[in-house]
Amino acid sequence: MAPPNPELVLKLANDLVVAQKHLESLQAQWEALFSNSPTPSIRKPMGGIASRVLLEINQNPSYAFNVDNLHKIFGPDVDRKPIESALFNLHKANKIVRVTRGSYSSIKSNVEPQQEDMEDIFK
């Protein structure tokens, strides 16, 4: 049996490394689709304001999730504008749902809107 071509072996090894990194990226995306909590990514740190807002909404469902309440929770070190932006971005990313004007709730898996909620939306 003839020895393999070293260039071909090197190319195949590089292709395997690239494929493994791509597979890890796809697995992270798959888990993020079904995750109800923020997941770490290469682009954004977990300690960002949107992650903190989503965590607060998940932990305290009794709050009327508006900017004033979240601003009181985070204290003076966080301005209102980043909180408003985080709520908007979480809403656009379908991480939270705006049930009525001025209030948000976290999206739970397999939960259908109740009839009362639908009536409130169309008032």
Q: Can you describe this structure?
A:
By secondary structure, the chain is mainly alpha-helical. The protein has two domains: 1-35; 44-123, Arc Repressor Mutant, subunit A (Orthogonal Bundle). 54% of the residues lie in helices and 7% in strands. Strands 1-2 form a two-stranded antiparallel ribbon. A hairpin with a 2-residue loop joins strand 1 (96-100) and strand 2. Helix 2 (49-59) packs across helix 4 and helix 3 crosses helix 4 (80-92). The radius of gyration is 22 Å and the shape is elongated.
The biggest sheet, with number of strands, parallel, antiparallel or mixed sense and barrel status, is: 2 strands, antiparallel
Mean pLDDT: 76
CATH architecture of the largest domain: Orthogonal Bundle
Here the CATH topology of the largest domain equals Arc Repressor Mutant, subunit A
Principal-axes shape call: elongated
Question: How far is the first residue's CA from the last residue's CA?
Answer: 79 Å
Low-pLDDT stretches are 109-113
Order of helices and strands: HHHHEEH
**What is the CATH class designation of the largest domain?**
Mainly Alpha
Strand content: 5-15%
- Structural class by helix and strand composition: mainly alpha
Instruction: Give the number of DSSP strands.
Output: 2
How are strands sequenced across the largest beta sheet? Answer: 1-2
How many distinct domains?
Answer: 2
What is Rg? Answer: 22 Å
Tell me the number of helical segments per DSSP (H or I, 4 or more residues long): 5
